[in-house]
Design brief:
Elements: H1 2-34, E1 38-49, E2 57-68, E3 71-80, E4 87-97, E5 104-116, E6 128-133, E7 135-149, E8 152-170, E9 183-201
Antiparallel strand pairs: 1-2, 1-9, 2-3, 3-4, 4-5, 5-7, 6-8, 7-8, 8-9
């Protein structure tokens, strides 16, 4: 009887040790998964082309955000020279890797607001009560990224991009005395293709 008790006690300690080891391993796995949330910076340079009457132009962005598993979301800001109307897009960026491999295709989408930042030669000369306003900004597309160093990737992507700017002003009337020219309103909507280079700093 005493031998059975000793054997049972031995198996109890073995089972208890195995249970504690499994619990510790699961805790470590949870910690590893939790640590998979990473802060990332994405620096972008793109060429914008496509809309009739507008020349190709440059766009640069900087995006900071968090990556979890195959998802990334962040806040981006840039400078957009397209359409002879310089602007500053501020947007939310979301990316989804299509696999868990280091080198992978990804989908992305941006949505935000485009603020006007016009140079003097982009404003109508002699305009009265001139006012420039921003509008909708978005972009979506597909890319492929691959690792070049342990802590960084580069990628190339192509997508469809849209930005909107608005203006309102009155044309000058030098020979008018009591006549007040009506306010003219313009709504610029630029639809273009974006060919983009990305540098990911992990």
């Amino acid at each position: 009887m005493n031998n059975y008790f000793i054997a049972a006690k031995k198996y109890f300690y073995i089972i208890l040790t195995y249970f504690l080891f499994s619990l510790s391993a699961n805790s470590q796995d949870a910690a590893v998964k939790h640590s998979s949330v990473k802060f990332e910076t994405n620096l972008q340079a793109s060429v914008l082309i496509g809309q009739k009457g507008s020349k190709p132009a440059l766009n640069v962005n900087a995006i900071n955000g968090l990556k979890f598993d195959t998802w990334f979301t962040g806040i981006g800001v840039g400078i957009d020279y397209y359409g002879l109307k310089r602007s500053v897009p501020l947007f939310v960026d979301v990316k989804k890797d299509l696999s868990e491999k280091v080198n992978t295709f990804f989908l992305f989408g941006d949505l935000g607001y485009d603020f006007p930042w016009l140079m003097n030669n982009q404003k109508p000369p002699y305009a009265n009560n001139y006012n420039a306003m921003g509008g909708l900004y978005y972009e979506t597309g597909l890319g492929y990224k691959f690792r070049i160093f342990n802590a960084s990737h580069i990628s190339f992507s192509a997508g469809y991009s849209f930005k909107q700017l608005k203006e309102k002003y009155a044309q000058p009337c030098f020979w008018c005395e009591n006549y007040i020219p009506p306010v003219e309103r313009y709504n610029y909507m630029y639809r273009r293709l974006s060919i983009k280079f990305n540098w990911w700093l992990l």
